[in-house]
Write a structure and sequence with these properties.
Number of helices: 5
Strand content: under 5%
Shape: elongated
Radius of gyration: 17 Å
Number of strands: 0
Distance between the termini: 32 Å
Helix content: 55-70%
Largest sheet: none
Length: 126
Amino acid sequence: MTDPMTMAIATAMAGKAVEVAGEPAREAVAAMVRKVREKFRGRAAEEAVLEGVVADPDSPERLSELHEAIRRAIAEDAAFGTTLESLWNQVRSDSTATDDGVVNNFSGQAGKVVQMRDVHGDLRIG
């Protein structure tokens, strides 16, 4: 199972662009990457996984290994996970639309959620 936060971190660490709009969101992603690098420093297995994905950033297997290493680090250290989650929430809340784009944010619980933009004509939801 993948989750958006750890996949975004793994993708950014692989040297791939993570699409986030707005400078504050990019800064938060960069901060998450720094935190993970700090966490992995001195841990041979994790450093090897990171080196592997940097050497072959297009490899789905390498990216998956890094994603899992990040998830393990979060599971082992609740404070680390909380720090990353806080930064991730900053990414989500700091995302802004550019040009003709749209950013919809929803948090909480709901049975049904509808988000849309530019509805022209009749709309029936039922």
